[in-house]
């Protein structure tokens, strides 16, 4: 499986707009995309306006398919202007707890 961890520092005062766009995107991704196994939205407790997205996909092609969905494109249209800085870690998932069920 393939994972991305997206660290996003928002412009001050944009938290609510970010969450209004990102939370429905995360929910729809797991609900509607067979290749998306996890999409967690995490808010840093110590650093204001810092968020982490933890996303697990079957493979890189599933992530590419995610980026073509209406819910992804709608969220990006909102959040792009809210981002002050963003970094992405790309990784292979060695284990999940509990294990992710494979799609048959």
UniProtKB/TrEMBL annotation:
Domain ABM intervals: 2-93
Pfam families: ABM
MF (Gene Ontology): monooxygenase activity
Domain of life: Bacteria
Any one of the GO CC terms: cytosol
Record key words, sorted: Monooxygenase, Oxidoreductase
Keyword Oxidoreductase assigned: yes
Annotated PROSITE patterns: ABM (PS51725)
Name of the protein in question: Quinol monooxygenase
Source species: Halomonas beimenensis
